[in-house]
Amino acid sequence: MRRFVIGSARNLLHRSHQNSQFQRPLLSSSYRLLSSSPSANPSSSSSSTMAPPVALNNINPKVLECEYAVRGEIVTLAQKLQEEIKAKPESHPFEEILYCNIGNPQSLGQQPITFFREVLALCDHPAILDKSETQGLFSADSIERAWQILDQIPGRATGAYSHSQGVKGLRDAIAAGIEARDGFPADPNDIFLTDGASPAVHMMMQLLIRSEKDGILCPIPQYPLYSASIALHGGSLVPYYLDEATGWGLEVSELKKQLETARSKGITVRALVVINPGNPTGQLLAEENQKAIVEFCKQEGLVLLADEVYQENVYVPEKKFHSFKKVSRSMGYGEKDISLVSFQSVSKGYYGECGKRGGYMEITGFGADVREQIYKVASVNLCSNISGQILASLVMSPPKVGDESYESYSAERDGILSSLARRAKTLEDAFNKLEGVKCNKAEGAMYLFPRIELPEKAIKAAEAAKKAPDAYYCQRLLTATGIVFVPGSGFGQVPGTWHFRCTILPQEEKIPAVVSRLTDFHKSFMDEFRG
Amino acid sequence: MRRFVIGSARNLLHRSHQNSQFQRPLLSSSYRLLSSSPSANPSSSSSSTMAPPVALNNINPKVLECEYAVRGEIVTLAQKLQEEIKAKPESHPFEEILYCNIGNPQSLGQQPITFFREVLALCDHPAILDKSETQGLFSADSIERAWQILDQIPGRATGAYSHSQGVKGLRDAIAAGIEARDGFPADPNDIFLTDGASPAVHMMMQLLIRSEKDGILCPIPQYPLYSASIALHGGSLVPYYLDEATGWGLEVSELKKQLETARSKGITVRALVVINPGNPTGQLLAEENQKAIVEFCKQEGLVLLADEVYQENVYVPEKKFHSFKKVSRSMGYGEKDISLVSFQSVSKGYYGECGKRGGYMEITGFGADVREQIYKVASVNLCSNISGQILASLVMSPPKVGDESYESYSAERDGILSSLARRAKTLEDAFNKLEGVKCNKAEGAMYLFPRIELPEKAIKAAEAAKKAPDAYYCQRLLTATGIVFVPGSGFGQVPGTWHFRCTILPQEEKIPAVVSRLTDFHKSFMDEFRG
Q1: What is the per-residue pLDDT across A344-367, written as a single tens digit (0 to 9) for each?
Q2: Which three-class secondary structure state does DSSP give residue B236?
Q3: Helix, strand or coil for residue B54?
């Protein structure tokens, strides 16, 4: 069966020029030329000149070019195995598939935060707000919060399209949450609520990329949304490498080097993507490092695209998340100094509400005319879903000390975060005990990205199977144990090195089984291929 | 203040070649070239070569090109007036803004269908399903349905990302609903659930459009999502004109003529968009007409993109909605004969749940390899919001005779639809009483699109104000009455004719006021400009 991942066996940074056949004609896109006057006589049909049907050789080559490993080949195989197990429980040497491929906590049993769900349910069905039974079912502060939110929505209509940036009152709550987090003002007019963070990333790529001559600086390894979005919008990904040896350090000297290299090839670099805490790498940037990055973007006239969706996922007491907005404001840089976009999502954090598709971007340092263009693009899709909007406001303004729900809310939150920290540590230690594997600490986010030294024979076997070596390892792991990792080649890595990404999300009671299955598999894999 | 609608004063079909300055370089989009080896020495920085800041002259020209009149200039003005009234109630000769610009029923007071909201609330907060108070608050069949839906979601996790096409069990329900509607089989694997219909339309445009040389046949007038999406994806809109004189008739001879014209200019026409019931035109296609359209697409090798989001909005007892899938299957055409995409949304119908952003497309007649590409693009955004997915399944499988909710459900549904039919008729009659205005019947959808003959002096006044004549009329109407119509120039119209789109959505008790304010304004406008 043909898989959809084009070139999955190739390294992300070593792809062939598959696209060169699709050169774009230099025509005006105006369609005035194409219209006949409606009063003219119809010409005769030419049904003999059949247009070709839709096929791989006549679809948009940017679609072909795009890759998204997190739901790629390995996951398709996992779904197939899952169906086989369902149909025939004894068909594989494991009872279930363990999806460690994607940051999807509730799919692995994480429970939603009660307060958030109470408010969402009440906003979905406000007719029950006045009923006496409701007080027996819902906390007093969730009822009060639902009323507050409904009062911010014109006509209390949660079923109406909102303003294309999102309900104003919800943006007010988010701006207040940002202010409380950063200690610097935030403007609700800078907030664009979106269906998760991904559409916000696409909007910025769509705005900035005019052609292959426009480049976006992206970390390697990176979350493949960025490479996919840049490919779909026809731009060039300009990679900068995180330094694995220093815990995935981000060096400004590396940024400068790659910027220069890109410029020397005629690329106009428009923006720098920074993912903090890192995905797939889990590192948390130091404030001094962030300052240097801000200074670099200011000096070089780059938009700073700050992926801050893991801002609540920090597992090391000695480090703290600082938003790039806070850092740039603390340096005295305001609207006129730096163009900055911060992405946030309800899918991550301790809430992990991936299915709700809520998120926002905060845009600062763009002129009114450009912002009107961003608004126009948002308006074409009308608005993001209102439940996601409400949830985005809730995660930025959760219950406070004294609220009826505060105690249970904070217990749920802390329980999830401390468990994630323990799971991260257990898995990190387990990886570091494997032969040929070295794993940096997950300071934040939801992932580990260990490096694996594969025996020469394994690399040969992968070649024979027409797979990247890390993809081959992950496939063998899956078919032997049911554990789904994503090969490092889907995120990018230093050529000749091999990694995989593993989420820290299996429920805590399952971690020992993951570790022992992985350890056993790894030993037998290494035994099989040891030289 | 600069408005975001570029060229709003120009007719949709007579735009300048503003884009010709933005010619695309013919470079490979591979980014292999751009990367230095991470082990090379960092080169020195060149902070003197500042990249230009983000400005209108260096953003993606396709973004500039795109227009979306439904939330365009006139709506921005309406929002400004609304704020002025809020700040100073006596500041304008009306007390409120009446938004007739957009199909957003609940924003104007339409109530949601109780059963749907009960199920959504229960799925948002399943913890209450077992509680005794819940039975006092919710209908028995909504509780049962919520259990059924939760059982279809792995781990009952409504907070998890689903399969990128949507939850399989919900797609099963939708496929069953399509089968019940059409009498022909539907496959859940053909369904892609999306956040409203708009992202589905974008996905198809993204797939089909390679360059300006690829054309999409679109009705004129059209819903401007299509022109916006084609512009954003860099294709060419190939217009075909609906015949106003025959109630917005769609003639295959016109399709053929425009197809030939486009081909003679070197355009590869990839697809035909048909909106049925029509937006903004409200007509319902006759089955024979649909057959001829299917035959045309088959003969010419075009993908048929069928916008069927108004399938429940039919107001004439003598006519019936037929899906294009049903029509093509009834002609004996299957998977191998025609590539067909049907768009459906929870935002329209009697439900009008715009804020929930639910919808789907049903894709038939595409090869497995192309479908894998569509799936890949869907997977980059992970999935659509689960509440919207649930609602999409509910509108395709509402309560049945015998269910506890059936009576109240059908009373709510019929009440909304019959009221919409009355409002459509009242507004149509009112328009036809206005001097120089002629309005076709709204057989379906949510709009009227009357034609207005403007006096020469009014056209001159519009020219002096640098507006299209219909935009000028709509702006005058808004500032005099608070009523928001969208000028026909935002949808496209036969050159030299003028129209506006008006929704039939103000609540029934407000219709007399709309009619009298419109009638008074129109008379004074015509008096002012009569020759």
Answers
A1: 999 999 999 999 999 999 999 999
A2: strand
A3: coil
Does the beta carbon of A57 lie under 8 angstroms from any beta carbon of chain B? Answer: no
Contact call for residues B370 and B190 (beta carbons, < 8 A): no
Question: Is any Cβ of chain A less than 8 angstroms from the Cβ of B268?
Answer: yes
Residue A4 has pLDDT above 90, yes or no: no
Residues 341-400 on B with a CB inside 8 Å of A are 347, 352-357, 366-370, 372-373, 375-377, 379-388
Distance of CA B118 to the CA centre of its chain: 27
Give CA torsion, residues B419, B420, B421, B423, to 10 deg.
Answer: 90
Decide if pLDDT at B13 tops 60: no
Instruction: Determine whether the interchain pair A121/B118 forms a contact, defined as Cβ–Cβ distance below 8 Å.
Output: no
Q: What is the largest CA-CA distance in chain A?
A: 79
Neighbour count for residue A94 (Cβ, 10 Å)? 16
pLDDT, tens only, B506-516:
999 999 999 99
Q: In A, which residues are within 8 Å of B395 by CB distance?
A: none
Residue A412 CB neighbours (<10 A): 19
The average pLDDT across A58-75 equals: 85
Per-residue pLDDT, A461: 96
Q: Cα–Cα distance between B176 and B111 in angstroms, integer? A: 27
Q: Does B129 touch chain A (CB under 8 A)?
A: no
Q: pLDDT exceeding 90 applies to what percent of chain A?
A: 84
- Give the closest-approach CA distance of B406 to chain A in angstroms: 18
Q: What is the mean pLDDT of chain B?
A: 89
Burial of B151 (0-12, 13-18, 19+ CB in 10 A): exposed
B496: CB partners within 8 A, 6+ apart: none
Q: Which residues, listed in sequence order, are joined to residue A273 by a DSSP beta bridge?
A: A305
**What's the CA gap between B158 and B120, in Å, rounded?**
10
3-state secondary structure at position A286:
coil
The single-letter code of the amino acid at B380 is V
Query: What DSSP state is assigned to residue A110?
Result: P
Backbone φ and ψ for B210, nearest 5 degrees, come out as -100, -30
| CB-based burial label for A336 (10 Å; 0-12, 13-18, 19+) | exposed
> Does residue B380 contact residue A9 with C-beta atoms inside 8 Å?
no
Residue type at position B466: K
> What is the rounded average pLDDT of the residues A494-514?
94
Cis amide bond preceding A398, omega within 30: no
Single-letter residue type at B444: G
**DSSP string across A198-246:** HHHHHHHHHHH--STTEEEEEEES--THHHHHHHHTT-EEEEEE-BGGG
Residue with tokens 């037929």: B322
* Contact assessment for residue A200 and residue A392, using Cβ atoms and an 8 Å cutoff: no
Strand order of the β-sheet with B500-503 is B447-448, B500-503, B486-487
Please choose, from the candidates A438, A445, A441, the residue with its C-alpha nearest in 3D space to the C-alpha of residue A498. A438
**Does residue A7 carry a pLDDT above 50?**
no
pLDDT 10s digits, A72-97: 788 889 989 999 998 998 999 999 99
Backbone angles phi, psi at B449, to 5 degrees: -135, 70
Q: Which residues of A touch B383 (CB under 8 A)?
A: 355, 357
Nearest-Cα distance to chain A for B388, in Å, is: 8
From chain A, pick out residues whose CB is under 8 angstroms from the CB of B41: 257
CA distances from A387 to A174, A196, B204, B432 (A): 14, 11, 26, 41
Amino acid, single-letter form, for residue A153: I
Distance from C-alpha of B109 to C-alpha of B505, rounded to nearest angstrom: 9
- AA identity, residue A526: M
Q: What ipTM was reported for this prediction?
A: 0.90
Put simply, whether A235 touches B (Cβ < 8 Å) is yes
CB contact under 8 A, A124 and B256: no
Q: Which residues neighbour A164 within 8 Å (Cβ) at sequence distance 6 or greater?
A: A375, A378, A379, A381, A382, A383, B71
Q: Does A80 touch chain B (CB under 8 A)?
A: no
